[in-house]
Amino acid sequence: MDFSFSEEENLWRKTVREFAEKNITPLVREIEKSKQIPDTLLRKMGQLGLLAPTVSKEYGGVNLSWVMSCIAAEELGRADLSLSIPVLYLVEAAWGFILNQYGSQEVKEEYLPRVTKGEAFCGIAVTEPTGGSDIVGSLQTTAEKKGDKWILNGEKMFISGVAESHRIGGVHLTLARTDPSAGYRGFSLFAVPIRDVDGVSITLLEDMGREGISTGGFKMENVILPEYHLLGEVNKGFYYIMEGFSAARTLIGATCVGVAEAGLEMGMEHIKTRNSFGRPIACFEGIQFPLAEHYTNIESVKLLTYKAAWMMDKLYQENSFSHHDIALYAAMSKLRAPQYAFEALNEVADWLGALGYTREYPIEMGIRGVRSYSIGAEGTLNIMRIIIARELLGREFLPYGVRR
Fold it and tell me: Closest Cα to residue 403, out of 184, 99, 233?
């Protein structure tokens, strides 16, 4: 049992941290104000291998391991407490991987080289206006095969990267019903372009945090796609998105660790220099005890997150774990990481006092940004609890829907 990082992994962390401190942190406020990540920064990230890094080298990726992908997510979280860039990173790392795994040769060649250069966006589109977590019961988007084409109709909502995909091009991996009678065994996954295709219209929303990357939706009215835009096999889409969700949830865990670590470091620096009643406030147990709790919580979720990443590497490299094993650990990471990060950042805001309520200090960006991960991004916390219980007890004990 070895908890140390390899020399290569430590060098990667150092490289990403130095890049992020130089190129990302100075721009975070401007990115939030402009609500857009600069194209020049995206190109620099692409050159370093920070855009869809899990994609194979054949398509411009670096075939990054999941442990190293989490290292990058953690470092980006430390550098950008608003979470705009970390969100873009983890969405493309998780769903670029799924496109690389199951996409046709034609669709991969068309989009992945551009995604890895920052010239196109790759996202996920599952949630709909009528519901999110209840995929089997609420999903209404349909895909019908006519000759050698697919016809898609439906609407997706609360989707990351809609404006980016519409502006520079790209695809969203979109879940649709292809066999309405088959429950979760009747879904298929499609690479849907948001731009340069007839029948797609977009809607943009204004989030309270992570404002540098867009959130919105898109409506599909008789959208015609070539057959090669289907990912993998017909009616296997549910399994593909569950695989992608596990990857994304693990990366979310790493992102939250980075944000929380950065926040606690800022807080510790403050409490050692802020005096009250003639002493630094770090001397008081009312400050020390919460610090000890929050640091322990973050360290525990860090270990859990990297175990999930390690298991994913073992699965894809050696086939030594199952997707059910990964789903369990990814859900545990996603359950704890956003809560612990939010609590830590909220505590630091208390230490900062009035300063913590101003935009002069980045803690407020972290509080707004990390909250999205507990509200619903990649599944609500209660959904994580259901997944954990399902993997422990078995599908026959699910509280809802089809158990077969």
Answer: 184
Residue 4 is classified by DSSP as: P
**Residue in the structure block whose two tokens are 């050159």:** 47
* Consecutive H or E run containing 251: helix 237-273
Instruction: Reduce the DSSP state of residue 319 to 3 states and report it.
Output: coil
H or E element in which residue 204 lies: strand 200-205
pLDDT at 133: 67
Q: What is the distance of C-alpha 338 from the center of its chain?
A: 12
DSSP, collapsed to helix, strand or coil, labels residue 191 as: strand
Cβ 115 vs Cβ 193: under 8 Å:
no
State phi, psi for 216 to the nearest 5 degrees: -175, -150
pLDDT at res. 184: 86
CB–CB of 297/344 below 8 Å?
A: yes
Coil, helix or strand for 223? strand
- CATH says 122-231 is which class? mainly beta
Give Cα 66 distance to the centre of its chain: 13
Look up 378 and say whether it is catalytic: yes
What confidence score (pLDDT) does residue 294 get? Answer: 98
pLDDT < 50 regions, the chain? 403-404
Quote the distance between the C-alpha of residue 195 and its chain's center: 22
Residues of the chain with CATH 2.40.110.10: 122-231
Q: How many CB atoms are located within 10 Å of the residue 304 CB?
A: 21
CATH 1.10.540.10 location in the chain: 7-121
CATH 1.20.140.10 boundaries in the chain: 237-397
pLDDT at 222: 97
- CATH code for the structural domain at 7-121: 1.10.540.10
C-alpha 321, offset from chain centre: 22
If we measure between CA atoms, which residue out of 215, 179, 175, 213 comes closest to residue 191? 175
**CATH 1.20.140.10 at 237-397, yes or no:** yes
pLDDT recorded at residue 396: 86
Closest CA to 362 of 377, 349, 375: 349
Spot the catalytic one: 32, 74, 378, 391. 378
CA quadruple 341, 344, 346, 352: dihedral, nearest 10: -140
State the virtual CA torsion across 52, 57, 59, 64 in degrees, nearest 10.
-20
